Amino acid sequence: MTDQATSIIAGTDSEQPDVAAATTAAAAAFAAYRSTTPQERSAFLEAVAAEIEADKDAIVPEAVRESGLPEGRIAGEVGRTTGQLRMFAGVVARGDHLGVRIDPAMPERAPLPRADIRQRMVPLGPVAVFGASNFPLAFSTAGGDTASALAAGCPVVVKGHPAHPVTGTLVARAVARAVERCGLPAGTFSFVLGGIEAGQELVADPRIAAVGFTGSRGGGLALVQAAAAREVPIPVYAEMSSINPVVVLPGALAGDVTALAEAYVASLTLGAGQFCTNPGLLFLPSGDRGDAFLRAAGDAVAAAAGQPMLTPGIAEAYASGTASLRGTEGIRVVGEGTASGDHAPAPVIYEAPAELLALEDSTVTDEVFGASGVVVRFDDVAELLPRLEGLEGQLTATVHADPDTDGEDAAALLPVLELRAGRILFNGWPTGVEVGHAMVHGGPFPATSDGRSTSVGSLAIERFQRPVAYQDVPPALLPAAVSDDNPWGLRRRIDGELE
Ligand code: NAP
Questions:
Q1: If both were cysteines, with which of 24, 49, 290, 478 could 82 make a disulfide (CB 3.0 to 4.6 Å apart)?
Q2: Number of helices followed by number of strands (H, E) in the chain
Q3: Active site (annotated) includes residue 53
């Protein structure tokens, strides 16, 4: 047990990250926090949202300064963060996350009677969350991973991202106030900073039961390995890399190709291209209309200026990724914008021959984090299908099509794309992820380390829970969620039928 009185915030003013103190406090908080009623937990998530809003005037300028992202984008991210917390507050208040199922006993059943079996979801235990560099608020300290883990009933220890330590510390203080205001144990939430060692120590700590991560493929895989090497391995939900293929079908080029190309470039360059859903690979029909699209895309990207990237390291990774594309035989530059300084490199679009997709070399298919896109031409969909089948797992796949003229081709693409990506969209662009109940922000490896999950939307809560069945447990001992009197008024599945 710990006598920690307030949440640990080993923020910018601390010298050493005390990971063990944070995990000890989280473990001590678990029993009390997981036994909060749906109303208490929901009120806590609402309180976190309110405390972040109360500090908005301090948080926004700091996040702008640390990330280089524009104020409008950061202010929007505050709304997304608080909206996400409130969505989970609603889910928890309704008890949706408990997923209660009851199969009543059938003592008279022949040849064997059936026992009374009741199922509900329970939280896994303390969760380690690695904040993302590219969303200093919505995927960081109190972002989607934290909100969904807290909603599930798991205390959270955040490893703040070094690209926005002050923002992370300010948000952590807001969460800590909500913990205190709601009378919850201090260890319900902790925040630590520190480098790779602190992150490794956190994942290896036996008190940690699961991990949420957004970042590089190398970082995510290192954490997956660290978690698997523990005496008791734990799940790691790592969102890593995706090039988000877009397929333009001929019918989509019948209209205004310039507008379509400009929309592509707008999505490609949004936020300096630092979105996990950035459209990095576009398949374009051969022929005049495709040529016109490519010229318009080249013109649009040539008119675009570089925007500051999040960290010098990310800008260096972009420089090396684009250099290797440029240095690959057969790849040509379609259009290139203007750099606006060392860490604000030029956006660029390349055209690559389709044969390069089939090679062992992954230069064309590796994620280049930033505003870099590759276009590959195709003659017909039959030729395209194996190319799509050969791609790695993706967060998104997009189709631009005219439903009247491309229907058959689009229908052939869908079964291939749904095995490759977590979200398929038509006649839109993948940047911008709605937070809701039906959203999936996940996908097969390497988009994520576990393609059965989503890190955005209310289903994200399931990552931090597991089902327990209670067989013939005496009524007086049953948890409230599965008891006969249903004190929380939950919608439950009784004998297979939703009440
Ligand atoms: P990162 O290098 O993977 O770092 C993310 C977090 O993980 C940081 O807190 C980092 O700690 C920690 N970490 C990294 N490697 C670790 C290891 N071996 N053991 C323990 N902890 C480790 O990602 P980033 O700094 O955000 O950006 C770098 C690259 O990630 C980008 O260039 C881009 O390619 C990719 N990225 C992808 C997405 C996406 O959504 N797909 C989003 C953001 C970034 P420290 O930094 O404190 O050492």
A1: 49
A2: 14, 18
A3: no
